[in-house]
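sorry for the late reply, my laptop died twice this morning and i had to redo everyting from scratch. anyway the thing you sent over, i finally got around to it. pasting the sequence first so we're on the same page, its 385 residues, then the predicted structure underneath. double check i copied it right bc i was rushing
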Amino acid sequence: MKKPFLRGDGAHSYSETAALESKSAFAEDVFAEDVMGWLFPLSLCLLVGFPGWQEPARADAIEDFYKGRQVKLVIGSNTGGAYDAYGRLLAAHLGRHIPGNPAVVPSNMPGASGIQSATYLYQIAPKDGSALGLFNQSMGQRQMLEPDSVRFDTTSFNWLGAMNTTTNVFITWHASGVKTLDDAKTKDVVMGALSSDGGNSVYPFLLNKFLGTRFKVVLGYQGGNTIQLAMERGEVDGRAAVVWSGLKAGWPQWIADKKINIILQIGLRKEPDLPDVPLLVDLAKTEVERAIFHFVSSDSAMGFPVVAPPGVPTDRIAALRKAFQTTLVDPAFLSDAEKRSLPVQPRSGDEVRHVVDTLIATPKDVIATLNRSIEDAKLDAKVAR
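ok and here's the structure:
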């Protein structure tokens, strides 16, 4: 039997004692609920306030995926050119900055001025982050000009960034008799090209149409280096879409020995070491010409772009973009780039995507005029190899 609670004038009844015990139990329950009520939100606040507590799960998942794996870097050109040089530079350093430190293996896939490699990445390559690509920076323009050849949407690629801003140059061999752009208006100048749709042929077609030059285009070369070897052999007089930074890195003796003439720049601004070489956008005489010249020049802001295929999980794309950006400011990477004479001016994935979106949004009347001009010029400019 329970003892009664005591008070000054005697004991409580058992019913009073039970009531007091019930009140005590109720108070304990209320206290417990109050404690749980403020502990639970406090725990949430702590988790939200310290997001790093949740991060290891996500980071570990990406690290687990890449650890011990090879990442294939598809380079859309043959060996020895500027795209190959930048691709191999990136492959040597990128893996250190991807969680799990995978081996990045460069693989050349030339064809159709980069379209073959881009098509592979779009249609065939695994969509899990184990395949990346570095291809022709003019792919956005190609999509607008050659919808039958470019069977993919460049805006759907995951753009990781670009390695440099670039300027393309027209070059002619020292024995060609063509030292300036005006010289190319007075005599036929034979230029080598891969296909009828790449920059090595499209640029000469445009100049013939709008500036009155007399370029002739020989098609069928396998890559930029093969065109330049053909220049040495006297098969052609020049080449129309040479990346200036790549030329300086890969063929410096040509420049030092004055084996070539630089007759035109294609980009949004002049190269500092080519102050006297004309820039295409500065040669426009009408608003239509200015719009067309700007369209073909604007990809200079995304030189040597690096992409992942569409459909790669967003967390892996975020990790790859971060790894790309970190790589391009890594002192070891920059030292290696300097040794290889490859200048680096990185652009983020968002910046590259903006350039691509702007190209795709070019007014249809500008594209139609450009296409007509190219087709008209092709009739007179192509010669058999």
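The longest strand covers residues 158-164.
thats about all i looked at so far, will dig more tmrw
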